[in-house]
């Protein structure tokens, strides 16, 4: 991280603190910086995401590189549920409760799949598809960016 980028991150952190913001995101060209404030008792460092630069002419559906941890390739029938917002992913309504869904669970349109906590609000994420959950792509308590795949559902 160069000094210019570090200065930008510090300035964004100061803005977030001054206006008591829980999160702030700024995109400049291909670089995106996101700072999410956490409960001070957690002692988590601020998170910074930098969007990777796509090589010119790269295919949109390129095959995974060797060593890519993305796992299996989805079938043609899979429906992907993505994060509509940035937030902390929770599989259950509270730590003592069972998960909303597991791999192999059958879901209907409107069934709750998970919760994304954003700015101290709990947002229930529901299924737009009926079918069977074939993959859960986020871990409990992960901070997920907007657009990240969360679930694969097959009819």
Strands side by side in the biggest sheet: 3-10-8-5
**Helical content (DSSP H or I, runs of 4+):** 10-25%
Largest sheet: 4 strands, antiparallel
Briefly note the CATH topology name of the largest domain.
OB fold (Dihydrolipoamide Acetyltransferase, E2P)
Please report the total strand number as a whole number. Answer: 10
CATH architecture of the largest domain: Beta Barrel
Average residue pLDDT: 78
**Number of separate structural domains:** 2
The amount of beta strand, in percent, is 25-35%
Categorize the overall geometry.
elongated
Order of helices and strands: HEEEEEEEEEE
Count the DSSP helices.
1
CATH homologous superfamily title of the largest domain:
RNA polymerase II/Efflux pump adaptor protein, barrel-sandwich hybrid domain
Specify the structural class. mainly beta
Query: Which regions are unreliable across 5 or more consecutive residues at pLDDT < 50?
Result: 40-51, 57-69
Instruction: State the end-to-end distance.
Output: 45 Å
């Amino acid at each position: 991280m160069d000094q210019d980028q570090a200065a930008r991150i510090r300035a964004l952190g100061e803005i977030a603190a001054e206006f008591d913001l829980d999160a702030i995101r700024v995109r400049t060209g291909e670089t995106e910086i996101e700072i999410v404030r956490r409960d001070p008792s957690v002692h988590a460092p601020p998170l910074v995401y930098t969007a990777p630069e796509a090589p010119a002419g790269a295919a949109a559906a390129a095959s995974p590189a060797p060593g890519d941890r993305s796992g299996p390739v989805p079938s043609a029938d899979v429906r992907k549920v993505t994060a509509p917002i940035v937030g902390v992913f929770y599989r259950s309504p509270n730590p003592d409760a069972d998960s909303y869904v597991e791999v192999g669970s059958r879901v209907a349109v409107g069934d709750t799949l998970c919760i994304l906590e954003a700015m101290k609000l709990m947002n229930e994420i529901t299924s737009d598809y009926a079918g069977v959950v074939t993959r859960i792509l986020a871990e409990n308590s992960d901070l997920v960016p907007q657009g990240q795949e969360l679930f694969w559902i097959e009819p």
